């Protein structure tokens, strides 16, 4: 349940949610958009990402969700995501670091 205080506090705030196109990130994005935040969500795949943003916009009626394609598995991918975020907004009020993974074995990114 979202309180009136939370609604008041988040209205007009800009929020970036990494990995916000499904699961917990998607539901967080939907909730924040529904209480008036401008939400940017990142994801690797453009079609599902744009569909997630459109679904949130349709469900909340806010038209305040922007999808940014991003591969957070590399430093270069994160630099590119940062450039895209800067192109869309002048600053962030909230960052939700939702991207991550749990792996049985060690692996290295393309950056080493």
Kindly list the characteristics that best describe this protein.
globular; 4 strands; four-stranded parallel β-sheet; alpha/beta; 112 residues; 4 helices
Structural account:
With 112 residues, this protein is an alpha/beta fold. The protein has a domain of 78 residues. The protein has four helices and four strands; from the N terminus they run αβαβαβαβ. It has a four-stranded parallel sheet, with helices on both faces. β1, α2 and β2 form a beta-alpha-beta unit. α2 runs parallel beside α3. The longest helix is centred in the middle third of the chain and has 15 residues. The mean pLDDT is 92.
Radius of gyration: 14 Å
Q: What proportion strand?
A: 15-25%
Let me know the largest β-sheet: 4 strands, parallel
Count of helical stretches:
4
Which structural class fits the helix and strand makeup? Answer: alpha/beta
Given as residue ranges, the uncertain stretches (5+ residues, pLDDT < 50) are: none
Number of strands: 4
What overall form do the CA principal axes indicate?
A: globular
**Which range best describes the helical content: under 10%, 10-25%, 25-40%, 40-55%, 55-70% or over 70%?**
40-55%
Strand order of the largest sheet: 3-2-1-4
**How far is the N terminus from the C terminus?**
43 Å
Strand and helix map with partners:
Elements: H1 4-10, E1 14-17, H2 23-34, E2 38-43, H3 46-60, E3 65-69, H4 75-88, E4 94-96
Parallel strand pairs: 1-2, 1-4, 2-3
Helix pairs in contact: 2-3
TL;DR?
With 112 residues, this protein is an alpha/beta fold. The chain is 43% helix and 16% strand.
